[in-house]
Amino acid sequence: MMFNPSNEIGASVPFRLVLAHTDAVALWMTNVRVFTGGMTFSLDACQRDGDKHLDMGGFGRPVSHATPPLLFGIEDSAGTIATNLPRTRSGLQLEGGGSSDGNNSARFSLSPLPARGAMGVYVAWPHFGIEETRFDVDTTAIHDAVADVIALWPGEERKPLLVDMDDYSIPDLEIPADGWFARQNPPPRPPRQPADPNRINFGYVGDTGQAL
């Protein structure tokens, strides 16, 4: 189940941890956002050159035209373990990601928040010769950020979105009558002459009631 703090605006924590930097690939952890029930972050990587995409996910989900997956895990001060190894149950989830020209990014969530104290971040990527390495991260800033989380509607969860799948109508563009957006919005294009599609009807009266 994906971590989905639907009733909160998370708090960002300044964070950048370089996990590996070799002649072939660079890997770093960044974009930490804190919620009351957990956190999200990104693992980003860039390869110098190669003929395969970088597999940033793991969890035993093979990806075609990709390298063997990155190995990633976290163990907090209370001994709670989260990892992207296959056939493991933990609070670490892959939320999504993308790749472009050798640059890859994967978005993860971790729930619940790691315990206060030193959090061990583990990484290994044998395909690139990256041996298992541990990084110690102080979680104080992560827990302090919980105070900055904004509950959208206190005391309730956001109701599920109900969409009428049989309604194919397209809504009109709504622009305030006056203001910055109104000044940037170009007037509608005059229609063509009905008798001669190659000629513009310059007598067309637009929404303003004036001939264009």
In short:
This protein is mainly beta and 212 residues long. The chain has helices spanning 140-144, 180-184; strands at 8-9, 11-21, 25-35, 38-47, 71-75, 81-83, 92-100, 103-110, 118-125, 130-138, 150-151.
Whole-number mean pLDDT: 86
Computed structural class: mainly beta
Envelope shape: extended
Question: Strand order across the biggest sheet?
Answer: 2-3-4-8-7
Q: Unreliable segments (pLDDT under 50, ≥5 consecutive)?
A: 208-212
Number of strands: 11
Order of helices and strands: EEEEEEEEEEHEH
Looking at how many chains there are and whether they match, the oligomeric state comes to: single chain
* Helix fraction by DSSP (H/I, runs of at least 4): under 10%
Q: How many angstroms separate the termini? A: 56 Å
Count of helix runs: 2
Sheet with most strands: 5 strands, antiparallel
Classify the beta-strand content into a percent band. 35-45%
Determine Rg (CA atoms, Å). 25 Å
Please supply descriptive tags for the structure shown above.
single chain, 4-stranded antiparallel β-sheet, 5% helix, disordered C terminus
Any overview of this molecule?
About 5% of the residues lie in helices and about 35% in strands. It is built from two helices and eleven strands; from the N terminus they run ββββββββββαβα. The protein has a five-stranded antiparallel sheet. Strands 6-5-9-10 form a four-stranded antiparallel sheet. The N and C termini lie far apart (about 55 Å). The C terminus is likely disordered.
